[in-house]
Design brief:
By secondary structure, the chain is an alpha/beta fold. The protein contains 13 helices and eleven strands.
């Protein structure tokens, strides 16, 4: 018997972190409403947007649960604020540039119902033009940092894959946070997202913690979402790369030994220097006529300067705000 979509929708809350999401935000919210999630269970956590996206959304859709931050609190902290506002059986974290496809909630619900120990489930992600996107990954490792990915895939193709056209659910190490769902009753044991990660790697660490706690992480291809693919990142190349490398270093510092962290830290500096040198040479060779090469050179130059200045904490994405101690802890259940 097919589950009632309205009853299924009531089992879920959605947390959408917004930072200058523009018209994408309203499309994201409408996709949740189309899947029968009640408006009061759609939590929008706004990180100090200045593009009018929140005001436009409020003028179009009533009854949403709104949380406003004075500045950019980062993804993990903002998502945790939304999770604390949620009381549903399952919570979906959905990027503001993503939208649920028809039947996504039913697929998530089925996946959780069939697997009582499933804590975190990831959706099948595709671009607006239909191309399959990466949706899951192995945990970051020293081997993956130092060796070319194509070489690793020769020796362990299944382990190092990040997407598949297959239709069967797969137990994986981690899923990507553009569209994932977590079982809420496991949160007191699992904990919330680690707020030491401002942007990137927070969901990877969450999945690692889930598996270490004894829970399962699965990729559910029948749960589908269309993902725009990092609109914020694409607007801010250099600052976004700083956040990515900072979060990668945070992951290795907190999850691996000191020796591995030192090797990865040193390797990132060397690789960034070579990338900056190569992109600068390409600009000279093309007489600085290629805009793409100029942007690439500026990005690597910005990133290299960040390393040389001993990685100052205030560099990266703009308008960061300080943590609010009153937002710590788990939601009451």
């Amino acid at each position: 018997m097919t589950a009632d979509p309205v009853a299924t929708g009531r089992r879920f809350a959605t947390v959408i972190v917004n930072y200058n999401g523009g018209s994408m935000l309203a499309e994201c919210v409408r996709s949740c409403l189309a899947e029968s999630i009640p408006p009061s269970q759609i939590v929008i956590v706004d990180n100090g947007s200045r593009d009018g996206s929140i005001e436009a959304l409020e003028g179009q859709i009533a009854g949403l649960n709104m949380v406003r931050n004075p500045g950019n609190a980062g993804f993990a902290r903002a998502a945790n604020q939304g999770i604390r506002q949620s009381s549903a059986e399952f919570v979906i974290l959905l990027n503001n540039d993503a939208r649920l496809e028809e039947g996504a909630l039913g697929a998530f619900a089925q996946g959780f119902d069939e697997r009582p120990n499933l804590a975190i489930a990831g959706a099948r992600l595709q671009s607006p033009d239909g191309r399959l996107q990466s949706a899951f990954a192995p945990f970051p490792s020293l081997a993956e940092e130092l060796l070319p990915l194509f070489l690793l895939r020769i020796f362990a193709p299944r382990h190092f894959r990040r997407k598949t056209d297959g239709t069967e659910p797969i137990a994986v190490e981690s899923v990507y946070g553009a569209c994932l769902s977590v079982r809420a009753r496991f949160l007191p044991r699992l904990g919330l997202l680690d707020e030491d990660f401002f942007f990137f790697f927070e969901e990877i660490e969450w999945c690692q913690r889930a598996r270490r706690t004894g829970f399962e992480v699965w990729y559910l291809p029948a749960a589908r979402a269309v993902h725009g693919g990092g609109a914020t990142v694409n607007r801010m190349h250099g600052p976004a790369r700083v956040e990515y490398q900072r979060s990668k270093l945070t992951f290795f510092r907190k999850s691996r030994g000191a020796g591995t962290y030192f090797l990865v830290s040193s390797y990132l500096v060397i690789r960034t220097f070579l990338d900056a040198l190569g992109s600068a040479a390409a600009c000279v060779f093309t007489l600085f006529l290629k805009g793409r090469l100029r942007r690439k050179a500026l990005t690597y130059g910005y990133l290299l300067l960040w390393h040389f200045l001993l990685r100052p904490g205030h560099w990266g994405l703009p308008e960061k705000c300080s943590p609010n101690p009153s937002t710590q802890g788990l939601p009451a259940r």
